[in-house]
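Our platform keeps sequence and structure together, in a single record for each protein. Such a record has a labelled line for the sequence and another for the backbone structure tokens. Nothing more is needed to write down the fold, since each code stands for a local backbone conformation. For reference, a complete record is included directly beneath this paragraph:
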Amino acid sequence: MVEKIAEGAFGRLLRYWRQVRKRSQEDVALEIDSSIKHISFLENGRSLPSRDIILRLAKYLGLSGRETNNLLASANYAPVNIEKFNLEDSAMLRASLSNILRGLEPYPSAIIDRTGNVRMLNRAWVEVIGKQVPSIHRQTHFNVMDMFLAPDGLKLYMENWQDVICALLVTLQQEVLMFQDADSITTLQRYLADPSVPSDWQIRGANRMSMSGMYSRINLPGDRPRDYLHVLNIVGSLRVVPDPVLMIYSIFTEDEEQAEAWRQRLIGSTYQHPLLVD
């Protein structure tokens, strides 16, 4: 559950950064074309900031994208869209995510961005899911929804694949409404143009999501129909606004027999995939 931001958080953050940067209230007021009284009221919670004021303060105080978004969130404003970075540029982050994905085996898991683009995979994903969709199995750039909507995708084996797609589309729609990210808008429009997407996708998708995730019934080749739980978890603490937004998408089975079968399939196997964890 996301923690409620404590009352007065914005004022405390503003005072903290002002003092870190060794600026007086007068310095801040002059720079952002305000008054000392207003800055004082912002810090003690007697006045509420506008979004524009917050962005001007962040720029003057030299805040990074993360700190700017924390300042916005503390005043109940949506975060700014932070320029995406390549995971290859952060060796420590990549190593951490690799360990997480390996630890989730034998359950298929992937790191995706807020648009649903797949950034990293574990061996279980390649073995259990990827091999079932030959058209994108070796691709370096694909969206998690391609796994379902591709002509040879998982929809061929799922009893309720449209419900799952609808739920993913509703999740993406919320990202568009909140952040107006160009990539998210383009991606949403592309998938909504698919004729197989139900016209009532918004209602169906809203009814499918729960706090724990969403269920699907899949009959993978060589197996019987089984129920699977699809779970999305945000990478990082919910106490701050992460940059960029990365999520762990995992598919779990509640059948321990099936989990053990997956585990055995991974023993001694070697895989090659451009998105596979190190």
Remarks:
- The chain has two domains: 9-74, 87-266.
- Strands lie at 109-113, 118-121, 214-218, 226-234, 246-253.
- DSSP finds twelve helices and five strands in the chain.
- The two ends are 31 Å apart (CA to CA).
